[in-house]
Amino acid sequence: MNRENDGAPAPKKVKNNHKTLEYAVKTGILAAIATVLMFLEFPLSFLAPPFYKLDFSDLAAMLGAFALGPLAGVIIELIKNLLHILFVGTSTAYVGELANFVTGCFLVVPAALIYKRKKSRKTALIGMSAGTLSLCLVGAALNGLVLIPFYSKLYNLPLDSIIGMGSAIFPAVHDVWSLVFLCVVPFNLIKGVADSAVTFILYKHLSPILHVKEPKNPEQQGK
User: Which of 187, 99, 107 is nearest to 143 (CA)?
Assistant: First the structure.
């Protein structure tokens, strides 16, 4: 029996603990950045009614998903919405935050899954394009079937008033679905393209910092 290692953690276990801790810390930092970015929102009044506001919080989730894996992207999306509720509360009975979480995941997860298969600029672009398309489709369904009717009831605002906000921008808007396809889909397209473009520019510069590194063996430390 080798008594030299009695009571000492196995090197593999130490390595795994180190990697788990680093993963958790980096995911938490990115979630905090996403939360801050979520506060920096602004409307695109030339494109959609003013209650649709653009922010870059999904950028932090996409960077995390590319560097740490799709699950990290989901965790970041979840934490940022929980923190937003904690600090600000909810004015939508949590439906808005749930929708933000779902649409964010549909942007980030397809992009990260495709990029994970073969890490290259080409697959990154393909993944982010797939994520943007997914965001537009899911966002359209959520808004048309759930969000717009829900907000109408929640704020006691007639659907015609919401549709009127859209028709003031695009005269062709005459019902919920024309509002969705003429205002919401282009809004989400811009959101997905903007997040993807900034990710594409920043990721290679930040990836050495964001990746979880293999810890050195005890024999290598100090060399």
Answer: 99
